[in-house]
Amino acid sequence: MSQLVDRRLSGKNRSAVNRQRFLRRFKTQIRKAAAEAVSGRKVADLERGEKISIPSKDLSEPTFHHGPGGRRNIVLPGNREFVSGDRVDRPEGGAGGGGSGGSPDGEGMDDFVFELSKEEFLEYFFQDLALPDLVKKQLAAVPEVKRARAGFVSQGNPSNLHVVRSMKQAIGRRLAMGAGPHEALRDAENQLAELEALGLGTGAEADALREEIAALKARIAAVPFLDTWDLRYAHRVDQPTPSSQAVMFCLLDVSGSMDENRKNIAKRFFMLLYLFLTKNYERIDVVFIRHHTVAKEVDEEEFFASRESGGTVVSSALELMYEIILARYPSASWNIYTAQASDGDNWDDDSPRCRELLMQKILPLVQHFAYVEIEAEEPQSLWHHYAQVKAMSPRFAMQRILTLEDIYPVFRELFQKKAA
Amino acid sequence: METDRAIAPPAPVRQPISEGSEWTFELIETYDREIARVAAHYGLDTYPNQIEIISSEQMIDAYSSVGMPVGYHHWSYGKHFLSTQKSYKRGQMGLAYEIVINSSPCIAYLMEENTMTMQALVIAHAAYGHNSFFKGNYLFRTWTDAEGILDYLVFARNFIAACEQRHGEEAVEELLDSCHALMNLGVDRYKRPARLSMAKEQVRQAEREAYLQSQVNDLWRTLPSRQEDARARQAARFPAEPQENLLYFIEKHAPRLEPWQREIVRIVRKIAQYFYPQRQTQVMNEGWATFWHYTLLNHLYEEGRLTDGFMMEFLQSHTNVVYQPPYHARFYNGLNPYALGFALFSDLRRICEHPTEEDRRWFPDLAGSDWVKSLDFAMRNFKDESFVAQYLSPKLIRDFKLFAMVDDDRDDQLEVAAIHDDAGYRAVRRQLAEHYNLGNREPNIQVYAVDVFGDRSLTLRHTMHDRRPLGDSTPEMLRHAARLWGYPVRIESQDEDGTVLPVGECAPPM
């Protein structure tokens, strides 16, 4: 007789360990594939895993097998036109008849393709990255907690004693403990009153009743007013608060010289920064500021949408950002990150002003300020002035990006984990 | 269909076991009981069955660990899991058919997504078809111990996990990589292996560890003293005869392995040995199981226990499984073992029941004999190679339109050696049987010599068959062999004239 076993609920994910082993073993290849995958993605695509392909020869499991050559006999099904003695040309590339006798695992040069989950993908992506000065508020290490009420408990610290609750408890207990004696007392008193009404108030029976009444009264009086088990204490627990919050400012130049391609590159750069922040902070606000000669705070749609014509005044964006920080994001409770993308064009008079603004007002407030210059033929005046800022402040980083593929390395360089 | 063996006249009223396609545990039990009854009627002798209901993910899992219900951890299983999962998700592959290994009790898996029909099909196929093959076939009887295997796998997993803790995952992984690569050279083809059992294995493992280490080192202590002449050196050839089991040789004689490493080599070798009969009987095993699920379910249908809808679904699935595309089809991928095996057993039954004049000439002993007995005999006493050589009938060769080609690199064209005609039957049959000879499919490589007095290098000798050279994986394979041996490993090829040519050499990683 067969035994029937339902195994569906046991041993789920049994191969998780083997999967981890596989990922670990090929981490170099996977990381490379992940880096390539990023340059081909859209913003909306970031919430999913990634298809990774690795050349299968890198992960082959070799066995001894025959190479081409020598004499081999092949038996094939489905003969159509041959009779014995026929001679046919050798098919190219093993098509048709060459198929049999090969190794069962297939030796094609196809890639081995598999899916990384979103988490795994990001893990690879961010493996050795960390934003600078992340420790400022010790966010990663010590999560902030808030004391929150969580009902009442019967044991606790005297300072947490809850008087009203304790009294309520005492009343209930006194009622419960006194109910029996009170009833007995009432009965006894009634009986005594009856006896007295009959004129027997001095007899032995009445004396017994009086004694009983006295005993009951003493017993009622002995019920303590407040007992230790009446005491109730307010209970408080530590609740982690999502105080690890960050705001990210995206500054984008939308002047006439920023074409679609440049904006695309900028977009990806912002995207990556955003993703990185989501890994490290529980709450992130994003502020989009676009500017040409004037700056304006916009939503994401508009941010990437259109292109204005005309010149560029970078300082307008910096000023607007400063105002927003003062109004909405006090730096005591917010980690502020800024990513600025531009093609480097700026009015000549404006660049020194930008430098001033950064040094005096903005950099003291922010965790990090990253500037990328996209597809600029050669460094413009803004670059030179920013270079001076960079020399002065460790919180400032700048890079030039030429093609889509440059983003990832640049991103890594910008946020390279700093030694200690 | 049932002439001489029908137990009951066809039931006047159909009383199907179930109508719908949903399965329940009660229904599975009922079907299993019915199938068991019919199987017993045909004399199928099986191990006790354990039928397990699993999810598709668990099925993929079972696939990727070659059906071993308990496996140690290794990245290659993760890789197989990923690729199976991918093709399953894309719908390129149904997981309906069984996974079953020869253990006792014999564990068969049913996937929860399947319909009642498919569950019944898998029960008939795996729990009675494969199961009786495992119990009856001579290779499995002599080479494997169905009762010991589960315990041994548990032992292996625990031992390897303990090694990972003590020596680090990477060290164990490297070792396993090399062992897996040489797995096909880790089987005894002629010597009979000892039986395995958990308790014995554990006791013996400790003893072996201590003893072996001293033995191995002894090998290197037998350096002859200087005054001995060259003749003595010549005589001290080691090994005295070429050895076919490379992993066994490494386990016993590799000079630099730690005891735990020897034990892991042994585990891989034992598992390879365990699966060796499966590799030798693929066509027979699948053919036998397919033949029986077909026969058992048809029998139940004739008794009126199955509905027409059931049969339609079953036959559709069955037909897909036994389809053999012709060689010129785009999706041709070699001979389908299910198709060939099923055809062989069905044809065998036909020869017994309704022999033609041709059959009487080719199979005088079979024609007209009791088909159940003849099939049982065939199942018990053959492997793919000998089975094809014995039973492939001219009719089958015609049905499959089989033909034999010769691909000789000295000839700029392929030659059709034989086709499905009177002159060609025997040649086609011989070639096909050769095709299933594992000894021809894999290069014949043996341990030839160890340079005991010199650099301690190990020489492997590849004996060429039909002038076929070694493939391009050889350098990498030598690296694996050298990692295990600990000293340089060479490989040479001996062609049919006896000329020996060096092929490659690899020093161990430092």
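Confidence is low (pLDDT under 50) at residues 94-109, 128-142 of chain A.
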